[in-house]
Amino acid sequence: MKSSLRILSRLFLLSLFIFLTACRGNDPQDDIAGDLDDGTFMPLDGEGGGWETTGLAERGDMGSPVDSSAYAPVYFAFDSYTVSPGEVGKIQSLSGSLTSNSAYTVILQGHTDDRGSREYNVALGERRALAVRELLLTMGISADRIQTLSMGQESPSVAGFDESAWSLNRRVQFQLMQ
Questions:
Q1: How far apart (Å, rounded) are the C-alpha atoms in residues 178 and 88?
Q2: How many CA atoms lie within 13 A of 53 on its CB side?
Q3: What does the alpha-carbon distance between residue 156 and residue 123 come to, in Å, rounded to a whole number?
Q4: Is 61 in a helix, a strand, or coil?
Q5: Predicted model pTM
Q6: CA distance 97 to 92
Q7: pLDDT tens readout for residues 19-44
Q8: Rg of the chain (C-alpha set)
Q9: Rounded to whole angstroms, how far apart are CA atoms 88 and 68?
Q10: Within 13 A of 113's CA, how many CA atoms are on the CB side?
């Protein structure tokens, strides 16, 4: 009886160790922050809890903001980071501007609606920004002219708790820099 309790106790501890080790490798924050020199964003300290670029503006790497209001956001389906065929034209328009203005760079800001955990939404916002980045790369825009930034659910464009509001918050916005 004592030996079977000892075996069960050891199996429990071993299972707990394996579980905790496996969970540690799946932390969305690990995927999100990455190497800050490559990842382009990091958690903000203090209020708001949003995400920002890793000092690109302070280092002068991206330049000054340019009016980007002419560029409509790219919208996404719920829980998706796939760019729909109907949204590709918006990315092509941006690509054309970047091609004709070689001094321009762009920050792709990935957003989500407010459903899901903060960590999940930051990761999804990142994947959305990266999906748009990949399309820009295939259109010939150099990687050093594109930065990504995940805002997650922190900066909704529309307030509300229904599909009409949520659909407008699932987006990638463009911020042109010169």
A1: 24
A2: 18
A3: 16
A4: coil
A5: 0.68
A6: 9
A7: 444 544 444 333 433 333 333 333 33
A8: 20
A9: 17
A10: 18
